[in-house]
Each structure stands twice: as structure tokens, then as C-alpha cells.
Structure prediction request, 231 residues.
Amino acid sequence: MLSMENLNQSYGESRILRDVTLRARRGVCTCIMGRNGVGKTTLLQCIMGLLPLRSGRILLDGADISALPPEKRAAAGMGYVPQGRQVFPMLTVEENIRVALAARRGGGRDIPPFIFTFFPVLKEMLRRRGGDLSGGQQQQLAIARALAPDPRLLILDEPTEGIQPNIVREIAAAVRRFTAEMGMTVLLVEQKVPFARGVASDYAIMERGGIAAAGSMAGLTPDTVKAFLSV
Ligand SMILES: Nc1ncnc2c1ncn2[C@@H]1O[C@H](COP(=O)(O)OP(=O)(O)OP(=O)(O)O)[C@@H](O)[C@H]1O
Ligand SMILES: [Mg+2]
Prediction:
């Protein structure tokens, strides 16, 4: 389980995260939702250690990881797929995945075959450059890269943004298997409510840097969606 306790973060004078307290239960997907600019990506970057916290604590399965640098968080089993994918365009698909393996303790091992059971297309494209893939394939590659070290917690930032519907469906199926078959904990940022409902058990809605509502996905009412998510 991932616990966030009273997280605060600021860019200069502007406060971005306000007392964020939230739990992502083990072995299920929790979806963080909220309009543009409310602080979703900032929260994920703080969880991964890519941005410093002003105050608060982050616990992974009970261990305080708040002071660890990003590479130690990765080594502790946290995988991260950033918003906008950020695959290496000049590296091949295989090299993109190997970069993630090299970061692993005793790295340089073979790419674990289970990755290709989620996204078989990548196996056919191992020699292709990341930059030559479609947007949807790049997203699948970014997820595969995060999976390579076999994380226990996978964090995804808007994986369906600008992606064609058939690949969105493949990503949804993959996320459901991460939790159901692999027992992974997934923390997802997603603005599309139908996608979120299809993969997540729990939700949290952010507004102006704080948690405005949270609960089980089954209890997410149309009124709440209207109040916090509709444009
Ligand atoms: N490097 C930065 N320096 C200063 N302000 C920033 C920086 N990055 C983000 N912000 C501001 O912090 C706020 C939260 O941004 P963040 O990217 O976390 O939002 P978000 O919910 O992920 O938005 P989106 O849905 O568009 O991805 C925004 O007002 C943004 O302008
Ligand atoms: Mg964002």
C-alpha cells in the first residue's frame, strides 16, 4: 500500500499541493482525477522523489520513503510512466526497455518475456526507433519500460492522452491484468471517466492542490463528476 500523509509542495510562492492525504490500496488501481492544472502530475512527481516536498510523509508498505532519491524509490519497486511518455526517440524499442533494466540492481539481464504478453506489438518492433512508433505504441513502450524491473507499484500519468481508441482498450486490459494477475498496486492519473471506471477500484478527485473527494469507484456519482470533472 502507498500512503500519502499531509503532503505539501510549492513552486516558489505558489502552493501546489495542500495537505494531500490519500491511500492507494495494495493490489488494486486507484485513479486520481481532476481538471487541468490542479496538481496531479506534481503529486506523482513528489511520490517518485522527482520534486521535493515542503512537508508530509510518503510510506510504501509501511516504510517511509520520503527521504529517498528517485533511483532508490525505483529500486524499492516503484515504476513510473510520466505524462507525455518521454521515450527515447533515437533509441530502439529494445534499447528503451534495456535502459530501465540497467537501472536495476545487477542490471543488464534479459528483457523479461512477460512484458510482451501485455503488448505483443513491441516484440515485433524491437529494432524500430522509439521516435518512429505511433503515439499509442510509444505509450505502450513507456509502460513496458516501467514494467521491466517488475515493480510492485506502478504509477501512470494520463496514459490515454491523445491515444487512438483501440490502443486505449489494450492499455485498459493491461492495467486490469497488472492488478488481477500480478497483484500490482496501480496509481493512475486519468481524466477520462469511462476509462477510470473500467480499470480502477478507488478514486480520488483533486481540486486546487487538495483532495476534494475520494472513495470507491462504484460510489462515484454523476453529481461528483459534474462538480469536479466536467468542463
Ligand atoms: N515547474 C513549474 N514551475 C512553476 N509552476 C509549475 C511548474 N509545473 C507545474 N506548475 C504549476 O503547478 C500547477 C499544477 O500543475 P500540474 O502539472 O501538477 O497539474 P496537472 O493536474 O497535472 O495538470 P494537467 O491535467 O494539465 O496535466 C499548475 O498551476 C502549473 O501551472
Ligand atoms: Mg498532469
Notes: The two ends are 32 Å apart (CA to CA). Residues 71 and 103 are 8 Å apart (CA to CA). The chain has one domain: 2-87+152-228. The chain has a mean pLDDT of 94.
